[in-house]
Amino acid sequence: MRLFPALVLLFPAAAVAQDATVAARRALDVASGKLIENVVVRIEKGVIASVGPRRPGESVTHDLGDVTLLPGLIDSHTHLVGGEEETPYDKLRETAARAAIEGVANARKTLAAGFTTVRDLGGSDFADVALRDAIAAGRVPGPRMFVATKSLSATGGHGDRNDIPFDIVVQRYSAIADGADEIRRKVRENVKYGADWIKVLATGGVGSAGTDPRNADYTEDELRAAVEAAAAKGRDVAAHAHGTEGIVRAARAGVRSIEHASMLDDAAIAVLKEKGTFVVSNPQTNAYMLERGAAGGYQDYQLRKSRELYELKKESLRKAVRAGVPVAYGTDAGVQPHGINGKQLAMYVEAGMTPLDALRSATLVAARLLRQEKRLGRLEPGCVGDVIAVAGNPLEDVRAVESPVFVMKDGVAFKH
Ligand SMILES: [Zn+2]
User: Which helix (H) or strand (E) holds 302?
Assistant: First the structure.
């Protein structure tokens, strides 16, 4: 794992919503794609008050010099709670308390990587709710979290433990629910215990034993029941879906985003476009798993499925980009380690995005997915005071964003 030994990590206890001014040679306006020269971002009580040229003699709290300022980045698909590089057996042995403690460390790494907001799509035992609230209260440093708590899975689906005997019941990770009634109940339970989002596992997956990513595990009616029950509570639904049939069913049912979207064909793309569904594609996960292999704790069946999906997922992302489907940046960090969240930006560029569009996927588009576009993803008055700085010009080389030199959230400098 990457360490940051030479950095000064600042985190004043319970410091939330501060006044600050950040000066730099350049800032990128992600909406227009224009670079603003000799700029100051002025933050009052954690919110951006103005962005403009430095006034003669203006003193600032953070004078960063020859760097490019960007809005804090958004990862639309993380799993902050739980340890890294764990085998399925390690996961079974991991208590909720341990998972939460690991989550504190993972949140810190994610923030240091410049990701000041995450949509956290599935965590065990509602530890994600506790972590979200501790971060929001200023108790521990980390990104602002929107959490999905327990993923809804069909019996035998991606969220079920299919590698243990029938008389050992594990209900830690997922809400096992079959049929519209059970699904509605689990949605309501998740919301009761703190869910901001609902995650449904519409197809098999890579990490689970005994599932096939091509299989659609929920019917369209079941998915629609999840969407309607979530909507009744003002929540949106994210659907994990690799195979084409599961993608189409979920989009037709009205989910807001398709996670992974590994097997898109033209007909599926047409449904996504018609419904305005977002795609969150994470080829970095497959690349990391295949590079790390068994040493990363991955099982043979996981590596086999990851290999089978890798090229399909990259090709599907290419198709989605070409067709103009909104693609929000999301990494599935937690399957691979945390803190390398920015490395996938280059893969989005390889899939046909410009560097600017890749940055938009992690700012404007992800903010829109979260329905937070009025306060996240831009360096503009009224938005939260989340500012990162990178060396060089990310429009020329998006890899500049992989290791930010400065990270501020709500006007509080975390990494300098
Ligand atoms: Zn995931």
Answer: helix 300-323
